[in-house]
């Protein structure tokens, strides 16, 4: 019964199936899948207007980046990237840096990384060298230095003569920055700081670019003078030789090994033993140490964390785009993939995935999330940018910091959490294809996964955000921001609402906004009241916060932020209503914000029943309204996600390309698997064949 | 300001920090972290009794497997595995097969893979060769063959003379098995079937072990006789030469490339061109083709899918263990990791993560899920095993198939979805450490991720499960299973409940069970009634199911399954109440089931307000009860998860080992990073150094 192989093996290619051409897309033949074409033809709004809204003031930059990338093959996403090992991925990333150094891109970034709303990270595959150097290291030497220091370090940095990293986290401490253990001890004799890692847990651990690439680090260490501990400050420390790139004496550093994502990035560890740096390498804008070891503070100490704040803003404003890339892939797949003959019309044609209601519920609320995360960020980003501008002009008004910190830390957590979880759901929505690296979804998600943790763990961020409300409301603080004025009189939001209640009509976006506000107001009021009652029983504040009401704080923040996000999205539309030309577009955006709000209510509205705002029937009403809105937007799905304006060169996906080519591309990528380079898998002859031949 | 390197570099090891020893765990010194020790000392129940409950009738096998693994270093989880490329991971997997072939393990599995409740997969790192051969291929030749065929193929298989795979999915069709395109055309002249892939989308795609390893496949193809299409059947096809292991003529096969996980597994594609097999290679138990090409059916055609059913049962019964491994890692980490000085007692000691309420909400409900998924599976597994036994004895009663399919497909989806999502949350709960491959969590999750898709995509499974209820209830079918009798009179479950309502006390598990039943009953009733109303308006059934009520079907299934799971867990405890000795243990189990039920209600209870079962105040009551129960179980957390009895040799985690050693192990693993083998990263000299030196 056994057969023997002949040497003339049949290898069938896509061309072996000529009849395939008609109904399917093909990247190689540049033929668009008719199913995708059909979707595009349904477009009833101005796509360019939407793209301009999405990118806002960065629209021109976006177009510039995109052109540079599209024109330069080295910068294209590379499908082979997914099958590379870490070494190869790193070399790939280095080549990208080389190539992009020759274009305009780095110029834009070099000047001032965070001036441009979008960083290059969202446009390129993997994580490239200099990314941390130009972002976090740059922010340290820009924001925390004296003018002289700033000129000195920025000159080196912008000319790429040094590569810096940002070393804050240690083995023992991540979230609790105040407890970091690395020391910088002032040595008056030599006018130097001596850097030490006094314990195993004080080893710096995680900094990107530290493992192999950086030759300098912005180091977060305890300032010690005459045996006194003045808490953490930033110091610039050279860590590797400029010629040989070997680590300097007293330094023990390396890569930390493989991770879920960021594998082209050399996150590293470093341990110091009596490493000396000049006193002037301390970043002295807000805290100065003079030749005599006298320490002087200037400004709000929280400004030390302004680097993290800056990065959080970037995380917050870019959350929509990572999610948008995932929606683009899963969305396109959902209209070219068909499964099951459930159409009434013609038994032979299977149904497009997106024509299943359950599938619409996977894709369209994700689009709603992209839209809200995009529109809502404008309000807080404007406040932040104005504040930065003020600071740069020399203002010493640090008051706005509080509300900025409240919203930015909260939204950082809320958006990244939502984006991450939705990206994962979108991957699942593609069935087996989503499990394939070539689909592009795995790497998008794996890289993004870090964002729920770094720059402030989401749980910690939500608590910090909650505290601004709890402290303020408890102390009867008057909130001035429009979005926050509801906090000034919480009970008014939910008491005496019988009339509104009766006529409550969730088919209007305003009613959903009301419901979200009431949900937040009632819960805040309740939490604070309960807390006050218990506090009277003399429980300590630490116990109360960490052991009794911590979970409520997290819920509280998310309720508040959901309201804020919908409010802020509406606010954006209202502010721009005159400049928006396309009425269909406006209506789609309203529908999407509406869907976002309703999805929030389906996640959790039980508290609204508790306060009497919702009555029997509301659950059904929410579900019905959602179904209607989702159904209404179904025909515009592809047109909306294609307005994110993400090119095939950016997303490298075998199932999400502009031609709607899935079968051919998936198979092509499969054939390229490194394992197919040899007929037999490595080791097979030694370990398995003998078993099959009964020799083992 | 630039410094030069000296050749005497300082490399600090863990031994450089002797003072570290006291407060920390150490794998190398076999010293248990005092924080972990403290947790263990709190244990107030019989851990072995719990372990025996968890493993049930597999307890002895479990102990046997564990011993074999612990005794054999080649079978240990290997921390270097995470830093291997695909080739190396495959070779590692082959060595595991070699080593395990010399032990008792494979003997147990060989005999009849699914007899033992636990497969070896949960005990070994990665996916090893022969796994599919011994599971799916084995099930085909065991369940779908005539006696002669069975003897022939099982002989070859159990002696490992062939390695088989299971080729069902094609590029074009996964969930819709009935639409597969590969053909097996009967050629009367030669008494053979001719296998062909008539289209590009008919290429088989995904089968594990197909890419490189298998020399045979169980092939799912359309049976064509005299131009008539008789639908899909299974055929055994040789695909590679026995001597050279090269693919046979007419066959084009290979690996499909990198994936999220399963990278040591060679999932493959295959395309056939006129490949001939003897007629007798068709699996003929339920469908026979004779020498003349006459086709004859015997038994229920759904039995063709019994292989998938068998695997679904395995997926369902093993879900708890994958989740359990993740809880073990995150749980141990949560008591040895401290962050922030928020303790009242002594300002110098930071708080254990698990002493934060929000962290308890991350860990303890996950334990509850493990417990419910473990206890609840017993009921349905018993029904399934009894049915299989009957079939083996020659029974032709196929009636139980319906309810088995209903519960198994539903629970497969419900459990894998919950486990997958919770595993991901647990990983996040470890902060940065969870992003490190060495923590073990990434690979656990990435391997598990496939389970929401394969053997029945979860969305499709939940719909199929719902249909059993919708069809049955619509037709006034009488349900006989205890767990399902509530379906016989739905309105009775939620009408006239004023008395219960007033005294409703969610601090009792029974009330939570009631609430879950009412939630399910009301929603089923409502969905069916609404559906009937619409159907009267002459909407087609396909439209109704797929475009109007599909999302409801999914909600409906999950509601029903949550009730069933809590019911079935209680049922287990009730049935075993006399044999359970430890009363504390019983009480902990009840509390955990209770937590599971309450978490379900926090996920979604709005419909309970709609039907009047819940009133204002219930939301608060649920939250309060949850807080109390979670707080009560806090001291037992580590003792419960350690009763899962998972050894350090099984879970390869730098943060979840039995010594509570995190700092030392994390740093050791980091130092082992392949990138640290050379001082400079590959490519750095060519691509980056010139930039830093201003030469580029
Ligand atoms: C890809 C990646 C890149 C990184 N890059 C850098 C870098 O360039 N430079 C750098 O310095 N660092 C970097 N980091 C480190 C990162 O900043 C830390 O991981 C982050 O700050 C979280 O700290 P941790 O990992 O120590 O978690 P922990 O602080 O130990 O938190 C662990 C868990 O405890 C919980 N927890 C902690 N405190 C509380 C509390 N008070 N209440 C309730 N729950 C609590 C958290 O929610 C979390 O679930 C990077 C991390 C990653 C993953
Ligand atoms: C790691 C791995 C190993 C595998 N091993 C094997 C193997 O050994 N042998 C083998 O034959 N196959 C194997 N498979 C394939 C697996 O069985 C399929 O991926 C699975 O059946 C799903 O099919 P699909 O990928 O074609 O998804 P599709 O069926 O295309 O589904 C895609 C999406 O559409 C949705 N959808 C589909 N139909 C409907 C509907 N009617 N209503 C609503 N939504 C719908 C789904 O929910 C999903 O979101 C493997 C897959 C993986 C990931």
From TrEMBL, chains A, B:
Binding site for FAD: 169, 208
Domain Acyl-coenzyme A oxidase N-terminal, residue spans: 46-162
GO CC field: peroxisome
Domain Acyl-CoA oxidase C-terminal residue range list: 509-693
Cofactor: FAD
One matching Pfam family: ACOX_C_alpha1
Gene name as annotated: Contig11466.g12266
PANTHER family found in the cross-reference section: ELECTRON TRANSPORT OXIDOREDUCTASE (PTHR10909), PEROXISOMAL ACYL-COENZYME A OXIDASE 1 (PTHR10909:SF250)
Keyword Lipid metabolism recorded: yes
GO molecular function, one term: fatty acid binding
Entry annotation: catalytic residues: 455 (proton acceptor)
Protein name: Acyl-coenzyme A oxidase
Family: Belongs to the acyl-CoA oxidase family.
Keywords: FAD, Fatty acid metabolism, Flavoprotein, Lipid metabolism, Oxidoreductase, Peroxisome
Species per Swiss-Prot/TrEMBL record: Stylonychia lemnae
GO terms, biological process: fatty acid beta-oxidation using acyl-CoA oxidase; lipid homeostasis
Compartment(s) of residence: Peroxisome
SUPFAM superfamilies referenced in this protein's UniProt entry, alphabetically: Acyl-CoA dehydrogenase C-terminal domain-like, Acyl-CoA dehydrogenase NM domain-like
Annotated ranges, domain Acyl-CoA oxidase C-alpha1: 305-470
Chief location of this protein within or outside the cell: other
């Amino acid at each position: 019964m056994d057969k023997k192989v002949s040497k003339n093996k049949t290898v069938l290619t896509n061309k072996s199936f000529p009849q395939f051409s008609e109904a399917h897309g093909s990247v190689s033949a540049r033929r668009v899948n008719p199913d995708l074409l059909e979707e595009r033809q349904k477009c009833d709004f101005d796509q360019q207007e939407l793209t301009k809204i999405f990118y806002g003031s960065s629209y021109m930059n976006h177009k510039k980046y995109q052109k540079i990338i599209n024109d330069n093959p080295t910068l294209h996403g590379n499908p082979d990237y997914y099958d590379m090992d870490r070494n190869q991925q790193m070399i790939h990333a280095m080549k990208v840096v080389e190539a992009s150094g020759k274009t305009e891109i780095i110029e834009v970034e070099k000047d001032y990384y965070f001036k441009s709303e979008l960083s290059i990270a969202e446009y390129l595959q993997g994580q490239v060298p200099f990314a941390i150097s130009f972002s976090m290291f740059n922010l340290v030497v820009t924001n925390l230095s004296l003018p002289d220091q700033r000129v000195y370090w920025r000159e080196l940095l912008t000319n790429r003569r040094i590569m810096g990293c940002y070393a804050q986290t240690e083995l023992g401490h991540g979230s609790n920055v105040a407890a970091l253990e690395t020391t910088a001890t002032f040595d008056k004799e030599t006018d130097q700081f001596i850097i030490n890692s006094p314990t195993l847990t004080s080893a710096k651990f995680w900094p990107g670019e530290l493992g192999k690439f950086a030759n300098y680090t912005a180091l977060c260490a305890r300032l010690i003078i005459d045996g006194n501990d003045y808490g953490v400050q930033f110091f610039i420390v050279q860590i590797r030789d400029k010629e040989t790139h070997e680590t300097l004496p007293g330094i023990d550093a390396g890569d930390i090994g493989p991770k879920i994502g960021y594998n082209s990035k050399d996150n590293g560890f470093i341990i110091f033993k009596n490493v000396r740096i000049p006193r002037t390498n301390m970043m002295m804008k807000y805290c100065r140490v003079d030749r005599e070891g006298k320490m002087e503070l200037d400004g709000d100490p929280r400004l030390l964390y302004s680097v993290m704040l800056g990065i959080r803003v970037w995380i917050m404003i870019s959350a929509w785009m990572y999610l948008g890339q995932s929606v683009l892939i899963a969305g396109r797949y959902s209209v070219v993939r068909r499964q099951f003959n459930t159409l009434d019309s013609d038994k032979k044609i299977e149904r497009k995935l997106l024509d299943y209601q359950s599938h619409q519920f996977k894709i369209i609320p994700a689009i709603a999330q992209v839209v809200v995360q995009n529109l809502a960020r404008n309000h807080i980003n404007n406040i932040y940018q104005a504040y930065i501008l003020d600071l740069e002009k020399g203002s010493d008004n640090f008051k706005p910091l509080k509300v900025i910190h409240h919203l930015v830390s909260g939204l950082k957590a809320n958006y990244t959490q939502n984006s991450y979880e939705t990206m994962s759901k979108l991957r699942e929505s593609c069935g087996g294809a989503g499990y394939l690296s070539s689909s592009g979804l795995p790497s998008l998600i794996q890289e993004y996964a870090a964002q729920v943790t770094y720059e402030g763990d989401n749980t910690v961020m939500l608590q910090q955000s909650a505290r601004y409300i709890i402290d303020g409301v408890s102390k009867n603080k008057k909130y001035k921001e429009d979005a926050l004025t509801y906090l000034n009189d919480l009970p008014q939001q939910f008491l005496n609402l019988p009339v509104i209640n009766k006529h409550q009509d969730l088919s209007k976006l305003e009613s959903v906004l009301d419901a979200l506000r009431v949900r937040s107001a009632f819960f805040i009021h309740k939490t604070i009241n309960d807390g006050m009652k218990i506090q009277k029983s003399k429980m300590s504040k630490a116990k109360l916060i960490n052991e009794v009401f911590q979970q409520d704080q997290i819920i509280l923040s998310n309720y508040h932020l959901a309201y804020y996000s919908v409010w802020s999205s509406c606010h954006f539309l209202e502010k721009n209503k005159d400049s928006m030309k396309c009425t269909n577009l406006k209506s789609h955006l309203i529908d999407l914000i509406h869907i976002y709000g309703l999805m929030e209510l389906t996640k959790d509205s039980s508290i609204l029943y508790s306060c009497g705002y919702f009555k029997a029937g509301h659950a059904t009403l929410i579900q019905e309204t959602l179904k209607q809105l989702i159904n209404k937007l179904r025909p515009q799905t592809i047109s909306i996600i294609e307005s994110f304006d993400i090119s095939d060169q950016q997303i490298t996906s075998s199932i999400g390309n502009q031609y709607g080519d899935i079968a051919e591309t998936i198979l092509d990528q499969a054939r390229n698997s490194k394992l197919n380079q040899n007929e037999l898998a490595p080791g097979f002859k030694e370990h398995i064949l003998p078993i099959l031949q009964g020799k083992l």
